[in-house]
From TrEMBL:
InterPro entries: Quinoprotein_ADH-like_sf, WD40/YVTN_repeat-like_dom_sf, WD40_PAC1, WD40_repeat_CS, WD40_rpt. The lineage of its organism: Bacteria, Bacillati, Actinomycetota, Actinomycetes, Kitasatosporales. Pfam families: WD40. Keywords: Repeat, WD repeat. This is WD40 repeat domain-containing protein. WD repeats lie at residues 114-158, 204-247, 314-336, 365-381, 429-472, 519-562, 564-607, 658-701. It comes from the Bacteria. Gene3D superfamilies: YVTN repeat-like/Quinoprotein amine dehydrogenase. PROSITE patterns: WD_REPEATS_1, WD_REPEATS_2, WD_REPEATS_REGION. CDD domains: WD40.
Amino acid sequence: MTGHRLPGGPQAPLPTDPLFLVTAAPEQVREQLARTPGPAARLADAVYRASAHLHGQAGPQGRRQLLALDAARFGDLGLSARIAAAPVGDGARRAWTVAWATGSTVDHRFRQALIGHTERVCSVATGAVEGRPVAVTCSSDDRTILVWDLATGRPVGELPMGDSEVRAVATGVLRGRTVAVGGSRNGAVRVWDLATCQPVGRPLTGHTEVVGAVATAVLDGRLHAVSGSRDGTVRIWDLTTWQPVGETLTGDNGPVESLATAVMAGRPVVVAGKWDGTVQVWDPATGQPLGLLPDCGEGVWALATAQVDGRPVVVTGSRHATVRVWDLATGRPVGEPLIGPDETVYALATGAVQDRPVAVGGCLDGTVRVWDLRTGRPVGAPLTGHVDGVWTVATAVVGGRTVAVTGGNEDGEARVWDLSPSLPVAGVPRGHTGEVRAVASTEPGGLPAAVTSSRDGTVRVWGLAAGRPRAEAVISPSRSVEALAGAVVDGRPAVLTAGWEDVVRVWDAATGQPLGEPLVGHTGPVRSLAVGTLGGTRVALAGGEDGSVRVWDLATRRLIGQPLTGHYGQVGSVATAELEGRTVAVTGSWDTTVRLWDLVSGTPLGSPLTGTIGLVRAMARTVATAQVEGRPVAVVGGWDTTVQVWDLATRQPVGAPHTAHTDRVQAVATGVVNGRPVAVSGSRDRTVRVWDLTDGRPLGSPLAFPGPIGALTLCQDGRLVVGFGWEVAVLALR
C-alpha cells in the first residue's frame, strides 16, 4: 500500500490511496482525511462521505463499487477507475465499471445521513444530552421517533410514540435534563426524557384536533411547552406543574401550521403561523396579542425566529408565496423576499454561522437553501442530496461548526450538512434537477445515446461516447414525461415521449426539435411506450391510464386497428415480441395482470399471466421481452419484490421467481451483453441486478446505488444506463 511517514511516527497510509479508501475501517479513513490538507484529500473526503451511510456496513467489494460510482458523480473519472481497480480478493471476476455519472445530488458540505426511518421524516429537533449534540427525528408514517448522536451519526435511542402518531417535535431543558416535546395526531402533547428515552409525566390534553406544531420557552425560569393545532388554538403548558397556563390563544380562525418562540423587549413571545396567511404574536404570560403580520401569504406552514443586530425577527414561508423576514417589534418586512413565489419552502430554521445570523430553508424541489439574515443574500449554492421535498429542518453546533439537520419526503432520510464556509469541489457534472422517471436508448448520428426524462420537465439525450456526461440535445415538452422510447422516424433517430397528456410526441434525437405531428388517439394520460415492427412497418405502441393500448404506423402517424382493450387498470408497461411468426404485444397493468395481444388481429392471446403478486409498476418499464435460445420470453418485475421470467409460447414461468430484491421492482430491461441474453432489474431497495437469461446465473455482483432505482435500459453495445434519484449513470461490464 502506498504510504507516507508522519513526522516522528510510523508510516501511515496515504488517505487518498484507493485501496486504503476501500479496505480501511471507516473511522480511520474519516480521521485521516479530516486532518490531511489539499484538494485531493478534500475531494476524497467528499466522495467517501457521499454514501458512507451505505458502504460503511458493506464489504470491500460493495464499498469499492459505491466509491467508484461516487467518484464519477463528483466528476473525477480517474479516481473512479483507480478505485474500481483496487484489488479486494475477487481476482479476475468480471465486474460492472462506471463509464460516467451525473452529480446533481452530491455536495461537499454533506456530512452524514441518519438512516433509520422508512417513510417521510416530518419533524426534526436538536439539543444536547450529557454534553453531546443530538437530533430527534420523527416520522408519523412509520410511527417512529429516533434519537441520534450528531457527532457520530449513530442512533442512540427511540422514543415510544404511544397510541397516536406524533407529528411534530421540539426540545428543551427541564430540571437540568434535556426533554423532547411532541404533538400528536389525537391532539395530545407528550414529553420524553432524552437521556432515558422514557415518557415524562402524563399526556397533556385539551386540543380537539391534530397538534402539528410545538415549541418550548422558558417563563419565570421554568420550561413551558407551546402547542399549535388544526383546531385553530395555541396552548401553553407549565412542564413543572404539568398544568395549562392562562387562557387558550385563539386569534383569527384557521389551523395553526407553524410555531416558534422568541424574546422581544426582554420577554418571551409566541409566534404562530396560521392557515389564513397571518402570523400572530402573543405574550404567553398574559395571553394578550402583541401584533399581527397580515400579508404573509396563504398557509404559513414554515416559520422561524432569530435575533439580527439585537432586533427580533421572524422568517416566514407560505403556500404559493415568498419567504420573507419581518421585524417583530414593528410588524414590517425587512428587505426584499429571500426567495420568489415559484419556489416553495416547506420548512425553516435559524442559526449562526461565524457569528452571522442565517436562515435555512427546506424546499419542495429537494434542495436546502441558506440565507444571510443581515444582507438577505444566499450563502453559497443550494445544498443538494434529498431526492424529494425537504419537510423539516433544524440547526445545531457540532464540534464548533454549525450544521443543519434536514428530513426528506420520499427517501425517509435525515441529512446533516456543514454550514461553515468551505472550498467547493470543482468539476462536478450536473444533470437533471428532479427525479429521473424514464430511460431509453437511441443512436443519433450513428452513435449510441441514452435518453432520460425527469420531473424537472426536461428530456435529455446523452452521448455515450463522451468521456463525461454531456447532453447532446435537451427536449422541453410542455408536460411531465413519464414514458420514453427510441425509434427511427423518417430516416432519423427519434425519441417518443408521453406522460400527463393524451398524445405521444416525436422528437429529433439529434436536435431536440419536434419531428412531425404528435400521435393522437388516446383520451387520457399515456403511461407506457414501446416500438416494434408489424408486417415490415415500424409501429409505436402506447399504454394508457384508461387501460387501453393504441398502435400507430410511425411513417404515416395513423392509428392501426382498434384499441387493445381488456385491462381494467392503467397500462404501465408495454413491449413487443415475435411469437410463432407473428408480432405480439406484452402489457402489464395496475390490475396485477400481464396480457399478450396479437397485433395483426388486435385480439388477446389466451388468458392473462397472473403469476405476479401485487401491482405491476406503472411508472417504469417493468415488462420487457427477449429471445432465449430461439424462444420468446417476458421478464416481469412486481411490487411483490420478485422478478419472474415467462415462456410466451407455453405461457408458463421459467424457473422460480428471482427473489433477491427486498423492495418493489421499479424497472426491468433486457438486452445482449457479450453475446449472451441478459435481464436487468432495478428496485426501490437501491440495487440493480443482472443475470444471464440462458442459465439464470448472476452477471457480476449486485450493484448498489445511493438512491432508489427509477428506470434503466441496456443499450445495443451492452452498456447499462441507470436512473436513480436525480442521477444518471452509465456502466459497462469489463
